[in-house]
Amino acid sequence: MINFRFLALWGMLLLLLPATPAMAQSGKIKVSCLGNSITYGTGLENPDTESYPAILQQMLGDGYEVIRYGKPGATLINRAFRPYMASEEYHLAMQRPCDIAVIHLGVNDTDPRSWPHYREDFVRDYLSLVDSVRSLNPKCRILVAKIAPQRNTHYRFQSGTRDWNLQIREAIATVAQAGNCELIDFYTPLHRHPELLHDNVHPNVEGSRIMAQVVYSAITGNYGGLKLAECFSDHMVLPRNRQLTIDGTANVGDPVTVSIAGQQHRTTTASDGTWTVTLQPLKTGGPYTLTVKTDKQHVTVKDILAGEVWLCSGQSNMQFALKDCSTGKEDIPQAGNPRIRLLNYQWLSDTYNHPFPTELLDSINHLRYMTHATWQECNPESAAAFSAIGYYFAQALQDSIQVPVGIIQNAVGGSGIESWIDRTTMELELPAILNDWSNNDFLMDWNRERAKVNMGENRSKFQRHPFEPCYMYEANVEMLTHLPINGVLWYQGESNAHNVESHEKMFQMLVRSWRQAWKLPDMPFYYVQLSSLNRPAWPWFRDSQRRLMNDLPHLGMAVSTDLGDSLDVHYHQKKPLGERLVRWALHNDYGRKDVVPSGPLFRNAVREGNAIRVQFDYAQELATGDGMPVRGFEVATYDGLYYPATAVITGSEVRVSCPQVEKPHFVRYAFQPYTTANLVNGQHLPASTFRSAYVE
């Protein structure tokens, strides 16, 4: 049995010993790394050279002496099953004063034998450990680390590890504040690289290098100097008429001055290498110059316009280029507009039916699948390669409100919605999708098989792919969250139409997570409903997309069924979609209530004898798009067996009946995979696919 009274007396004795700075003994700055098996280097071929303390020694150089005191299996909590303060490694550390102590403990406290029973001991025991280290040298710098993540494939992930890891990280932040320690973060940089945790817990050599870099930067204050996110470049657009947060990194303690439009803001780089300033609203127009300076460096971004900034994302129909559009040949020569700016991210290689080369697979594992992009003025050359939908949206918006518009393309052909959601959200709300993703039927068969083809002979479970859940968020969206935007345009779903129910859940997760990431709880999110195509699940998916508009605020949907091709998922008519999406923005965000945002949207159905009367929103001047009788309505009795119905427009409603169905209880519209349904409103905007609930 562990004698904790002895431990307490030992700590008091240490406090009575004369404190001598460790550096005075050898001329080197002594760094003690206290921790568990991750500090020791468990799972590495050679912990003496590959553990994070060993790599840290290489980084710091001869002026430092780094000593590793890692105890595999150790807990921080003293009443738990293997307390670090009872270990030989701890007692060895207590025999050698240090100038800097790095403590990484708590991972093993996610064990159900520890945290559920003794969580109230954690902060007290951690502070006791800090005091004992400091007793040897009161001037010792103490760095306490937010614990490294455990992969979602850890056998206890959902039963406790996921939640207790979060709670322990929060407790460690409390320790840092209460104990006057420096807080460092091992969790965040490893969390976005689950492939580096070879056994769900222990980092491989590259993971050790990431941890060493975290500690190196914290000790030296060297974070690589002054940097802005790479999405800041000449010719960019920033949102107008609202306060803007601009952030970046620099070396610790560096004074940072940010200047633009006569404003000057000063701050100091924090201990984690980050700095943030808040700009007062920029007036519409420009051009402006943004200057960011430290004492030794400066970054200048020129020709900035203040206007509206929109991000278009999704899969191939959003990526579909203007040059391939049916109206591209006519419109590209007229595309010159210096008040529209384009930021065009393209993939390093398409996801077509071919193996990726080894160097690309390595880049993908390092979250480098998209090209580096810089802002460009809109001209025939830059517009031709840009998203057709994004271009037409920007053109129509700029023409309507007469302000600069910045539009960002960040879409990947074939990608499922799951690849665009952040990992924390996915782990909390749908962790099952992360397990063995390449054999997991949350993902469409086509996506899983194509990913296997792209990965070729590399069948490592640690190889990543753009279709992997969370990948595109980590590879590109996360970086873009440093850029203030006004809203999102989304065209995606073809790769999720096989599972309507899971998509409904993930779509809401996507919207909520992006709004949280940009700190815009009401950020507009306008999306395109799937088109007509001979795929059986698509009518159900289109109806689901319609209903999703009611699940969260500030959503809008553009209908595309009238544009689809029965055989080609990549239909070429994209101009109407950009113009339909901009209607939602004008109506909801730019005060243009005179603009009708949508075609008819199902509101209600009422049974009248042997007919059903259907009511719509946005139903002014109902008509048919081709001047022919109304097509596309069906009715059914309680059995749900549908029959084609006759539909007659009566003002802003449609009366639907069928001789074979005397008492209809259900009505639906445009419910064929490829539909020729033709109901429109006075703006010639098509009605959405819908299926009613039971009509009494």
What does this structure look like?
The chain has 696 residues and is an alpha/beta fold. The protein is 30% helix and 23% strand. The strands form six sheets. Strands 7, 9, 10, 12, 13, 14, 15, 16, 17, 18 and 19 form an eleven-stranded mixed β-sheet that branches. The longest helix has 22 residues, at 157-178. It is globular and about 95 Å long. It starts with a helix and ends in a 5-residue tail after the last strand. Mean pLDDT is 95; it is low at 1-20.
Would you summarize the structure shown here?
The protein contains 22 helices and 29 strands. By secondary structure, the chain is an alpha/beta fold.
SS-based class: alpha/beta
Quick one: overall form? Answer: globular
Q: How many distinct beta strands?
A: 29
Strand content is: 15-25%
Average of the residue pLDDT scores: 95
> Unreliable segments (pLDDT under 50, ≥5 consecutive)?
1-20
Supply Rg: 30 Å
End-to-end Cα distance, whole Å, is 73 Å
Number of helices: 22
Could you give the topology of this structure?
Blueprint: H1 4-16, H2 23-26, E1 29-35, H3 37-40, H4 47-50, H5 52-60, E2 64-70, H6 88-94, E3 100-104, H7 115-118, H8 122-136, E4 141-146, H9 157-178, E5 182-185, H10 187-191, H11 205-220, E6 227-228, E7 237-239, E8 244-249, E9 255-260, E10 263-268, E11 274-279, E12 285-293, E13 298-314, H12 316-319, H13 328-331, E14 337-345, H14 358-365, E15 376-378, H15 380-384, H16 388-401, E16 405-411, H17 423-429, H18 445-455, H19 471-480, E17 487-491, H20 500-517, E18 525-528, H21 538-548, E19 555-558, H22 575-589, E20 601-608, E21 611-617, E22 623-624, E23 633-636, E24 642-644, E25 646-650, E26 653-657, E27 666-669, E28 679-680, E29 690-691
Parallel strand pairs: 1-2, 1-3, 3-4, 4-5, 7-13, 13-16, 13-17, 14-16, 17-18, 18-19
Antiparallel strand pairs: 6-8, 8-11, 9-10, 9-12, 12-13, 14-15, 20-21, 21-26, 22-28, 23-24, 23-27, 25-26, 27-29
